[in-house]
Amino acid sequence: MIIEIDFNSDEAIYIQLRNQIIIGIATSRYQEGDTLPSVRQLADHIGINMHTVNKAYSVLKQEGFIKLDRRKGAVIALDVDKLRGLEEMKRDLRVLLAKGRCKNITADEVHQIIDEIYCEYKYEEP
């Protein structure tokens, strides 16, 4: 598992870890059913506290990206509740777009950025 944590970032380590795993799922590096390293293994590998990994896994579970299994540990298991996903995305985008608007970023520039990012994930319409 390739995880890159920026220890100088203002972003919390558990959020960075969460984001890296979500991006890994979106880019097909991690597949449905894949088992993530144990909390202890990942903490040792990255050099962080086990509670930090545990918090990231808990958030991923709440958000519907993983399930926690007593025997297997953390397993990629996507909750495909599209309506909930759209509402979460709308909520998150509202703040990002407001920041962009304050910095004079146009709608066309936003659309271009979105298209670039979706290409990275090899997104295909169902």
From TrEMBL:
GO molecular function, one term: DNA binding
Keyword DNA-binding carried by entry: yes
Keywords: DNA-binding, Transcription, Transcription regulation
Keyword DNA-binding among UniProt keywords: yes
Residue span, HTH gntR-type domain: 11-79
PROSITE patterns: HTH_GNTR (PS50949)
One matching Pfam family: GntR
Source organism, top-level taxon: Bacteria
Protein name: GntR family transcriptional regulator
Highest classification ranks of the organism: Bacteria, Bacillati, Bacillota, Clostridia, Lachnospirales
